[in-house]
Write a structure and sequence with these properties.
- The protein is of the alpha+beta class and about 260 residues long.
- Among the domains are: about 35-110; about 130-175; about 180-225.
- Helix content is about 55%, strand content about 15%.
- It has six helices and four strands.
- It has helices at about 5-20, 35-40, 40-50, 120-175, 195-235, 250-260; strands at about 55-65, 70-75, 85-90, 100-110.
- The chain has a four-stranded antiparallel beta sheet, with helices on one face.
- The relative contact order is 0.04.
C-alpha cells in the first residue's frame, strides 16, 4: 500500500520550490498623478493649519506620486531655521468614484535641507574624544623632542663657532709674532727680503743707540744736581766755634767728674 503522506509532502515541497523560483513581478510604478488629488490643495492647507500657523505655510512647491490614488502635496516652509524643508500633506482615495482623504501632514526635509548630524552614543563620543586627546599629547611630545634636538644642535654649532674664533685669534697672534727674519726670498715676489732685513737691523741699532744716549744724558744731569747741592752746603755759615782759651771753673770740673762712671 503506497505511503500517501510522503507523497503529499513531496508534492508540497515541489510546489513551494517552484513558487520560490518563479520570477517576482515588480509592482507597477505610478508616475501619473491623480487629477482629483492634485486639485485638493485647499483640503491640504486646511489639514496643515491644524498643526501649524498659516504664516508658516508658503506657496505650493510641487507634488510626489506615492502610488495609485496616493499623492503628496508640498508647500514651502517660511519658519526661520528650516531652509530646504517643506510642509507635506499626503492625500489618497480608494477608487475613481470616492472623495479624497488626508492620510498625514508633516514637515519633511528636502534635498537641500539643513539636517542635524546623526546621533552618536555618549560612549562612542567619549572614546573618540580620548583618542583625539592622546593624539594631541603625542604630537606635542614629538614637537618637544624636536625642539630639544634643535637646541642641542644650536649649542653644538655655537661651541664650534667659538672654538673656531679662538683658533683664528691664536693663528692671528702667531702670525703677528713673526718678524722679517722668518720670511724667505721666495715668500714675497718682487720684495728684496735681504735689504729689508738689513734695514730692520739698522733700525734696531739706531734705537739702542738712542736709548744709550738718553741714559748717559740723564746720568750727567743727576751728577750735576748732586754737585750743585754739595756746593750749596759748603757755602753756608758755619756754627760758632768754642773759644780755645776759655778755662773751666772748678764747679764745671766737679760736675764733669761726677758724670763719669766709677771705676
Amino acid at each position: 500500500m503506497p505511503d500517501t503522506e510522503n507523497e503529499t509532502d513531496v508534492d508540497a515541497t515541489t510546489e513551494s520550490s517552484e513558487a520560490a523560483s518563479a520570477p517576482v513581478e515588480d509592482a507597477p510604478v505610478w508616475t501619473v498623478p491623480d487629477d482629483v488629488l492634485l486639485a485638493s490643495v485647499a483640503q491640504a492647507l486646511d489639514a496643515l493649519k491644524e498643526i501649524t500657523p498659516a504664516a508658516t505655510i508658503g506657496a505650493p512647491a510641487g507634488h510626489i506620486v506615492e502610488g495609485e490614488h496616493v499623492l503628496s502635496l508640498l508647500f514651502e516652509c517660511t519658519m526661520s531655521g528650516y531652509p530646504g524643508w517643506h510642509w507635506t500633506v499626503t492625500l489618497s482615495r480608494i477608487d475613481d468614484e470616492s472623495a479624497p482623504s488626508v492620510l498625514e501632514a508633516e514637515l519633511m526635509p528636502g534635498e537641500r535641507a539643513l539636517l542635524a548630524p546623526d546621533w552618536v552614543p555618549w560612549s562612542e563620543r567619549l572614546a573618540e574624544y580620548q583618542a583625539s586627546q592622546e593624539a594631541i599629547a603625542a604630537a606635542e611630545a614629538d614637537a618637544g623632542d624636536d625642539d630639544d634636538e634643535a637646541d642641542d644642535e644650536l649649542d653644538v654649532d655655537d661651541d664650534d663657532e667659538t672654538d673656531d674664533d679662538f683658533e683664528d685669534e691664536d693663528e692671528d697672534g702667531e702670525d703677528g709674532e713673526h718678524d722679517v727674519h722668518d720670511l724667505h726670498p721666495d715668500d714675497l715676489d718682487g720684495v728684496d727680503i735681504e735689504s729689508a732685513d738689513e734695514s730692520y737691523d739698522d733700525a734696531d741699532d739706531s734705537d739702542d743707540s738712542d736709548i744709550d744716549d738718553d741714559s748717559a744724558a740723564f746720568d750727567a744731569e743727576v751728577s750735576e744736581a748732586d754737585e750743585a747741592e754739595a756746593e750749596t752746603d759748603n757755602d753756608g755759615p758755619e756754627p760758632p766755634a768754642v773759644s780755645g782759651g776759655a778755662q773751666l771753673t772748678e764747679e764745671d770740673q766737679r760736675h764733669d767728674e761726677g758724670d763719669q762712671p766709677q771705676a
